[in-house]
Amino acid sequence: MPLVENARIVADRYVYVGDDEAIPERVPVIVTAQRFLADPDTLTRRDGSLGVLWPNNRRVAELAPWLGHLAMVALHFPKFRDGRAYSQARLLRETYGFRGMLRATGDVLRDQFHFLLRAGFDSFEVKKQADAHAFAEAASRYSVVYQPTADGRTPALRRRLGEAGPG
Amino acid sequence: MTSPLDQKKIKIAGPVVITANRVGDGAVVYRSPDGGWTTELGGAAVVIDADSARALAEVAVGDDLNAIGAYIAPVKLLPGGHVRPGNLRELIRRGGPTIELPAPLDA
Amino acid sequence: MYIYDAFDRRLLAERVAEFRDQVARRLSGELTEEEFKPLRLMNGVYLQLHAYMLRIAIPYGTLSTRQLRKLAEIARKYDRGYGHFTTRQNIQFHWIKLAELPDAVAELASVGMHGMQTSGNNVRNITTDQWAGVAPDEIEDPRIWAELIRQHVTLHPEFSFMPRKFKIAVGASSRDRAALRIHDMALRLHRDASGKTGFEVMVGGGLGRTPYLAQTIKPFLEKRDALSYVEAVLRTYNQFGRRDNIWKARIKILVHDLGAEAFAKEVEAEWASIKDGALALEPIVVAEIASRFRYPDYEALDDAPPQLAELRRKDRGFDAWVNNCVTNHKAPGYAIVTLALKPEGGTPGDCTAAQMDKLADLADRYSFGEIRVGHEQNLALPHVAQRDLPALWHELNAIGLTRTNVNLISDIISCPGLDYCSLANARSIPIAQEITRRFHDLDRQRNLGRLHINISGCINACGHHHVGHIGILGVEKNGEEFYQITLGGKADENAVLGTLMGPAVPYAQVADVVEDIAAAYLELRQRPDELFVDTVKRLGVEPFRERVYAAR
Question: Please, where are the H alpha helices in B1-107?
């Protein structure tokens, strides 16, 4: 499953660690929410980047106290039709001010790239190779947006008033 | 629509065909014995037991390049081998709406 | 009406290009149907019994003649010469080919029309009432707010994959002509005690298997907060609406399960963190959208010009038409003309390409180039000078659009039903047709008075049968079509769900039953001007049940 970041297929520096596995030293790791919440203080003090895979049916508010210590939050789309992680992403970016990496996992397809980027995702475990290769094209399909999100694009409502900024 | 394969046990009460809609134009089609699709009910593969129906449906559902929404539909077999739609819905699918369409005078 | 600007047009063009690409990838097999289906639904492309169906949004029911002519072209070129106006102010074409859709969609885009979000688990067409902007009892034009919300929810990155669809309606008068309370969310403009204008916000309405009327969760929302509050409601729904059962996935279930108060609390908590952010609407932003609504340059005319009264005295047909189809306008000397698309023996809401073209001509000459579509599946000419009514009537007569059955028993609201729709259990259109034939006599209809019949071919209730004065729901029993009949439903500001009258009735008997119900009403009403629905309210369904089922 190709990983796309900055519109390019990249190697994944992160390692998923199972709940029963030992966590390797100084390697960027992703642990489950369950494992993280069992001992967040130890995990956040560990030397090495830490990511948490958060389920889409739990409030991200629970994760909020530790966001400053997390390099990454991975959110999940069990099926692309299940759009809960879009709300989670926006809450993380816009309400909680999370600045780390936001990864989309699960059923991640080409026709959602535009929405995913706008919602604040910047790392994508893309399901299909062909979609990964088409990321740049698919992501730039829309030059006009109607809603303000954390991506900083200026919505049409504001551009009409002459407000500057990326559209 | 529920896929016919979602049912754990397929029960059929008589002869059935697999029907679907053609991808390009949405026309009503029936699975034919040669593994294609035909718009003629008379050319449809008719099966009479649940296992055959399931097998036929499985293959048909997988052929979504050509037809979509495949499901198992009842038919009536008349003397002489004629096949007729087995319920009102299939009658309407084959024959079109039961009402007169607004006359497109200059369509 | 709203004029698209360069931004709106560009977004639409980009959407068209994306859809063209998606269709190509589907036809080549690169996309499976499972992957393609939600994408085509997001563009209003359904698969029905005989063909694909394209549902085109008519935002808040407002059409320019240019757009109407384009719909006629689409009907001729890509369909079978007619279109169907729906109960949500949309239009449907029932014979569309997928392979031709990218071209059809591109042509629609050229006049600012599209099928975006007329299907799928997103926010659907924002509706108002068809007299918006011209009704005398409005406090202001609700369409400006409908347009603000429409833009906000279009291709919204967060709300394109919700648990289920979401329907919003906006009203601006105390008389509810937009059926606000059967919507997932409704905003009603009104004035508070100090005279300030704001919104009453209602959520959790919806028909279908478990019908509910919307409840008020915010009695007064400031205009500034309209978008942020809508956002908070949608975000709450997106996160907590059920996704395990398609029949329990609408917001009405969430509101009912949590209770309106708990739901409102959840919304308020979310809203608190965003209300002063980027979605806060300054007056200048609202003014900018409002400025792109073009209003007619009304002449200074007097009400009741003498030639009008004269013709009404001389011609009973004209008089009947004015009584039934013509209503007051907020501008003196003008009128709103309703055109019933309910001919005897016809399909409710259908309109041929030829009719569309002729109507476009009439709208250009008599209505400042504008037509309206109502959820009752009728059309309206919203800006007709009263002095033009005689001439307009003559021309409408010539094309058969002066039937004076508006709001009467033959002004039936009906879904397409099993003749078209793959979700249906029973037919609805032939039921409607037979009823119109039985009640073809207009004197008889006038005697019965205002009487709304709503027919749905399945529990999805697209015909809004729950809120019909007489509601008819098609069901299947042992392979036969049967119909459940409810009485006393209302869709207005006193909205109420209808009550089941008795056991389901077979197809062949429905029109007879409706005649029996009508006869019962005439017998039971206190005075000739007691409306059918009020007789039902006063007496309940029991006396109707007795009479209808006595001989069955």
Answer: 50-62, 88-95
For residue A40, give the H/E element and its range.
helix A40-45
Instruction: Judge if ipTM > 0.95.
Output: yes
Element (H, E) at C479: none
The answer to whether C486 and C470 have CB atoms below 8 angstroms apart is yes
Residues C177-195: tens digit of each pLDDT: 999 999 999 999 999 999 9
Token pair, residue C417, equals 């039903």
The reply to whether C364 falls in a domain is: no
C199's tokens: 């919104």
Q: What is the largest CA-CA distance in chain B?
A: 51
Domain-ending residue, one of C109, C132, C157:
C109
8 Å CB contact of C285 and A81: no
Average pLDDT over residues C378-389: 97
C159: tokens are 């709300």
CB atoms C238 and A84 under 8 Å? yes
Contact C320, C313 (CB under 8 A): no
C328 within domain boundaries: no
Any idea which fold A3-142 has? TIM Barrel (3.20.20)
Domains held by chain C: number? 3
Task: Give yes or no for C38 touching A (CB within 8 A).
Answer: yes
Q: What pLDDT was estimated at residue A163? A: 79
Q: Which residue in C11, C159, C288 is closest to A161 by CB distance?
A: C288
Domain that holds residue C79: 6-109
CB contact under 8 A, B93 and C76: no
pLDDT at A161 over 50: yes
Q: Give Dmax (Cα) for chain C.
A: 69
Residue C316, in any domain of the structure: no
By the 8 A CB rule, do C341 and C384 touch? no
Q: What is the pLDDT of residues C5-43, one digit of tens each?
A: 999 999 999 999 999 999 999 999 999 999 899 899 989
Strand segments, DSSP code E, in chain A are 3-5, 8-10, 15-16, 29-32, 50-53, 72-77, 101-106, 123-125
Cβ contact A115–C243 (<8 Å): no
User: Among B100-104, C259-263, C543-547, which stretch is predicted with the lowest mean pLDDT?
Assistant: B100-104
> Considering the entire predicted model, what is its pTM?
0.95
Q: What's the token pair of residue C504?
A: 């389901």
Residue-wise pLDDT tens digits, C96-114: 999 999 999 999 999 999 9
Residues of C in contact with A145 (CB under 8 A): 11, 155
Which residues of chain B are at the C interface, by a Cβ-Cβ cutoff of 8 Å?
A: 1, 21, 23-28, 64-65, 68-69, 87-89, 92-93, 96-99, 101-107
- Output the domain CATH number for residue C479: 3.30.413.10
Which CATH number does the domain housing residue C44 bear?
Answer: 3.90.480.20
| Residue C334: inside a domain | no
Domain endpoint, select from C261, C291, C321: C291
